[in-house]
Design goal:
Layout lengths: L1 H49 L45 H12 L11 E4 L3 H4 L4 H19 L11 E10 L2 E10 L13 H22 L4 H15 L1 E2 L9 H6 L2 E2 L1 H14 L4 E9 L5 E11 L2 E5 L16 H4 L3 E3 L1 H4 L3 E3 L21
Parallel strand pairs: 4-5
Antiparallel strand pairs: 1-3, 2-3, 6-7, 6-10, 7-8, 8-9
Helix pairs in contact: 2-4, 6-8
């Protein structure tokens, strides 16, 4: 009898130990699951933070006019990134005369901010101008070079193209004409936009743009190329509101400062920022058919990703929503990295940038969406 009691006691003790072990294991599992959920939530929060760009405007009191480095000591330090080939994409399609003009403009690009600098080509086109069609060829080459230059170099937002003129003059010595060519302001005497009447105004605007974009570069430098593109795309959509009435609606400065832009402003700031983070991107003008089938002039972008080109229409990815509607990822990416099969249903390219210029070609985009 005594032996039976001992056996029962041992069984009870063993059972208690086993039960305690099971309870402890269940507790640990429950605790572990709780930690996993917590960690997962934390990772999601971190992921959301990593997928968004937060940019603060500069204190313009730190602006230093006339500084060699636009923005002076108040700008942030950014990594060195190779300039993508898209910064001269349309340049590559010019003839030799057009390239000579484009080169002269680009080599002295910083002089544009004076508003009065004269680009002197001397007698470089003297031989051409002695031919029967030389004057017409020079004028077309100039217009084509100017078109390419303004489409490639979108940061010249402060230049008014209507105030720029090609001047051809000649001197006659011994019955022989020698032609010289310059590009200079028209009668107004200044080719700066009315919104940027002085060099200091230009430099202050350049400072603002650099300060803002430097933050984007720093916040995306550890991302993959796709992540860079997607983050910039979303940031601009959330930062900018479609508008046709603001003074700088067609340029990148207005998109950043006033946070308003039309399709041209959207496309220019997208190109500018992507090139600063090392992604090739070009402007594409043309026409679109809206949901009612109405045709309208429009501008969008082609960008290069993994050796293929894709279309992005950031304007159409930022629609004017009805009151109470939410801007979802699905809405924001309806025209994000699209191929020709999708794009040509609504968009049609137009390579003639101006009436007197040449017809440009665009990158051939992938048939399929990314």
């Amino acid at each position: 009898m005594e032996k039976s009691k001992k056996i029962i006691i041992v069984i009870i003790v063993v059972a208690a130990v086993i039960l305690a072990a099971i309870i402890a294991e269940l507790f640990l599992l429950k605790g572990g699951e709780g930690n996993e959920i917590s960690n997962s939530q934390e990772e999601n929060v971190q992921a959301n933070e990593q997928n968004s760009i937060a940019v603060d405007p500069p204190d313009l009191n730190t602006f230093l006019p006339g500084g060699n480095d636009i923005g002076g000591s108040g700008t942030t330090q950014t990594p060195n990134i190779l300039e993508p080939t898209s910064t001269t994409y349309y340049y590559s399609q010019l003839n030799n005369v057009g390239k000579t003009i484009y080169d002269g403009l680009k080599q002295n690009k910083d002089k544009f901010k004076t508003g009065t600098y004269i680009f002197n080509f001397g007698t470089q086109f003297n031989t051409l101008l002695h031919t029967d069609s030389g004057n017409d060829e020079l004028n077309k080459a100039f217009q084509s070079a100017w078109d390419a230059f303004m489409y490639d170099q979108v940061d010249l937002f402060y230049v008014d193209s209507s105030k720029v003129n090609l001047i051809t003059q000649y001197t006659n010595i011994g019955g022989i004409n020698t032609y010289t060519v310059t590009i200079e302001p028209r009668e107004e005497g200044n080719y700066l936009s009315a919104e940027f009447p002085t060099q200091e105004d230009v430099e202050r605007a350049q400072y603002y743009v650099k300060y803002m974009v430097d933050q984007v570069i720093n916040q995306t430098q550890d991302n993959s190329i796709f992540q860079k593109v997607r983050k910039v795309h979303e940031w601009l959509i959330r930062h900018i509101e479609y508008d046709e009435t603001s003074k700088n609606t067609s340029n990148l400065y207005g998109a950043l400062l006033e946070q308003k832009a039309n399709c041209e402003g959207y496309s220019k700031i997208f190109k500018y920022v992507l090139e600063k983070i090392g992604v090739s991107c070009v402007l594409v003008p043309g026409t679109v058919n809206d949901s009612q089938g109405v045709k309208a002039n429009h501008m969008w972008n082609y960008l290069q990703l993994n050796s293929k080109w894709y279309a992005v229409d950031i304007t159409w990815d930022d629609p004017i929503l009805e009151e109470g509607a939410v801007l979802t990822d699905e809405i924001m990416e309806r025209y994000f990295l699209k191929g020709s099969t999708t794009l040509t249903q609504t968009h049609k390219e137009d390579g003639v940038f101006s009436e007197k210029g040449m017809e440009f070609k665009f990158p051939v985009i992938s048939e399929q969406d990314y």
